[in-house]
Amino acid sequence: MKRIFMMRKTVYLFAVAFLFIHAGFAQTKVVNHLSQIKMNNYNLEDTIYKYTNFYPDGTQLAIAFIENGKVKFFRGIVKQNDTLKDIDNANSVFGIGSITKVFTSTLLARAVVNHQVSLDETVDKILGYPLKDNVQITLKQLSNHTSGLPGLSNKIWAIADKGSNNPYANFSDADLKTDLTDSLKLQSVPGTKYAYSNFGAGLLAYLLSKVEKKPYEEMLQQQIFEPLKMNHSTTNRNEIKNYLVEGLNVNGDTARLWEFSEIYKGCGSIYSSVNDLSKFVVDNFNQNEVNNLLHQPTFQINTVNSIALGWNKNVIPNYTYYWHNGGVEGYRSCLIMDIEKKNAIIVLSNVSAFHPKNDMIDALCFELFKVTDK
Could you read off the pLDDT of 308-338 as tens digits, one per residue? Predict the structure, then answer.
């Protein structure tokens, strides 16, 4: 079967060939009509149409443009009767998929700064039992996808191979212990190779929960969402059901949204809005001990791309930016930020990760970023 559910991210290197265009930005405001937006004569309407016209009716996109550390404007569109129309959805909630991993790594950075754990602390020490063959995997390796763990644990693969449309829902402590002690098969020696792993990211959040003796949701609320007033962000859909944009499946019908067990929540379970995520991005622009650790590269993937804690980092002449994307059944997302210039683009959508052109959400985000970033 086609295993799109892994939320694999393709490492886009669009920036290698990009000439980033300066756009003059005004004060924060919500723009109701795309035709009002002028960015050095750049036609946003044509660009958004180019990357979204093939999606089904009911498709929504929410976009945030940030420059110099402030939101320039939010942009919302909905496709109705094959026409793209304006909609005010800055506070509407979408699944953000694997962008969740950045929040998990933020919790890790905070725990390190607070001397609760170290980046070199090993999985077995926190779990209280040895991994198969006494394998040593660190928290840093879980965060930067160099743990050698497979993309998914064995039980999740087995569930998916049976055709389940909710693969992450049921995974217990006992299942975790079995997968780590009895059936563990590493893809590479820990610390030697980058290989994207939802299993690793979920395990990281689970371990932090054990260290702090709090559920993942509680840690997120107390350490990130509440301090930043991210009032529409949560892993609990019931808390934001009145704001939730209906996720669509590949046919444009209502999707069955995934559930995440506690062990997998850290890889893709967060729901949020562009307004909330803008607050998170702006906070990432601050120079402090947590952010400095969070943004520090930990593994070089190639000449352009490295991985920090959770964040992808791309470096080309005169430009450095961080990014992550996400995809789950019902939603597709992308976030890119330039910390030095304090510019960013956030794109959330209710496009299914199974849609054959789901990656055009990433393409749109990068296209808008090259116009936004100086």
Answer: 999 999 998 877 899 999 999 999 999 999 9
Which CATH number does the domain housing residue 152 bear? 3.40.710.10
Could you give the count of Cα atoms lying within 13 Å of 329 in the half-sphere of its Cβ? 17
Residues 6+ apart with CB under 8 A from 75: 31, 34, 37, 44, 48, 61, 62, 63, 64, 65
Angle, helix 360-372 to helix 44-52, in steps of 10 degrees? 160
Q: Give per-residue pLDDT as tens, 167-195.
A: 788 889 999 999 999 999 999 999 999 99
Domain of 239 in residue numbering reads as 4-8+15-372
| Alpha carbons 58 and 346: distance in angstroms, whole number | 20
pLDDT of res. 233: 98
Using the predicted structure, report yes or no on whether residue 24 has a pLDDT greater than 50: no
Half-sphere exposure of 66 (CA within 13 A, CB side): 29
How many structural domains compose the chain?
A: 1
So what's the pLDDT on residue 41?
A: 52
Three-state SS sequence of the chain: CCCHHHCCCCCCCHHHHCCCCCCCCCCCEECCCHHHCCECCECHHHHHHHHHCCCCCCCEEEEEEEECCEEEEEEEEEEECCEEEECCCCCCEEECHHHHHHHHHHHHHHHHHCCCCCCCCEHHHHHCCCCHHHCCCEHHHHHCCCCCCCCCCHHHHHHHHCCCCCCCCCCCHHHHHHHHHCCCCCCCCCCCCCCCCHHHHHHHHHHHHHHHCCCHHHHHHHHHHCCCCCCCCECCHHHCCCCECCCECCCCCECCCCCCCCCCHHHHCCEECHHHHHHHHHHHCCCCHHHHHHHCCCEECCCCEEECCCCEEEEECCEEEEEEEEEECCEEEEEEEECCCCEEEEEEECCCCCCCCCCHHHHHHHHHHHHHCC
Distance CA 246, CA 338 (A): 31
What average pLDDT score do residues 258-265 get?
Answer: 94
Global pTM reads 0.89
